[in-house]
């Protein structure tokens, strides 16, 4: 079936690939990483395991997932679960005393050992967060907007009053996409390179 459907077991490898193919601020990061599963281990895998009810994919004619939208309704609770049940396994697999020579791989391994934490004032008002990525061949045509609205409706139904996300400041196309869907920039959590955007639900 072509179109948006809920995530289901068996989609994982395809979604890790989508993450890698969009992992350079929306561009293909395949050539940048020696370990092709590193990015997915941070930005896809934990959502599929611990928040699968808030995961949707866009599938092609062969029912292969070519895009995803992933979310959690409670960021702080999700962080606690990952601290206990996700990061320890990845840290054992990628120890700090054996950091990769590749700077891109090394940056992700360091993130695994020191995961990002959004500031309290941001999470208090916008406790949910999300990630969305579409492979180049399925970008356009309103697919991303439809996927994002599907998740936003589900987050609202779950009782989340607001949602936040992070986007590279240089990714002007993505920023415009989010603004079109009602997101606004937030000073809380934003850095020189990353813009945090928020939306009430």
UniProtKB/TrEMBL annotation:
Gene3D superfamilies, A to Z? 3.40.630.30
Q: Which residues form the N-acetyltransferase domain?
A: 65-201
Task: Spell out the coiled coil positions from the record.
Answer: none
InterPro entries for this protein: Acyl_CoA_acyltransferase, Glycosyl_Hydrolase_84, GNAT_dom
Q: What is this protein called?
A: N-acetyltransferase domain-containing protein
């Amino acid at each position: 079936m072509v179109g948006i459907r809920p995530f289901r077991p068996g989609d994982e490898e395809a979604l890790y690939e989508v993450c890698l193919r969009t992992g350079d601020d929306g561009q293909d990061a395949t050539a940048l990483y020696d370990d092709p599963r590193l990015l997915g281990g941070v930005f896809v895998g934990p959502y599929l395991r611990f928040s699968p009810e808030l995961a949707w994919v866009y599938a092609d004619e062969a029912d292969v997932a070519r895009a995803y939208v992933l979310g959690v309704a409670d960021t702080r609770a999700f962080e606690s679960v990952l601290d206990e049940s996700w990061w320890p396994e990845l840290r054992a697999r990628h120890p700090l005393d054996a950091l990769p020579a590749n700077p891109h791989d090394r940056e992700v391994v360091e993130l695994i050992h020191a995961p990002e934490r959004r500031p309290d004032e941001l999470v208090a008002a916008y406790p949910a967060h999300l990630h969305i990525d579409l492979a180049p061949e399925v970008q356009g045509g309103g697919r991303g907007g439809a996927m994002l609205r599907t998740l936003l409706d589900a987050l609202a139904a779950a009782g989340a009053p607001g949602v936040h996300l992070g986007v590279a400041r240089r990714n002007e196309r993505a920023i415009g996409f989010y603004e079109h869907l009602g997101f606004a920039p937030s000073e809380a959590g934003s850095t020189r390179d990353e813009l945090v955007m928020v939306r009430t639900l």
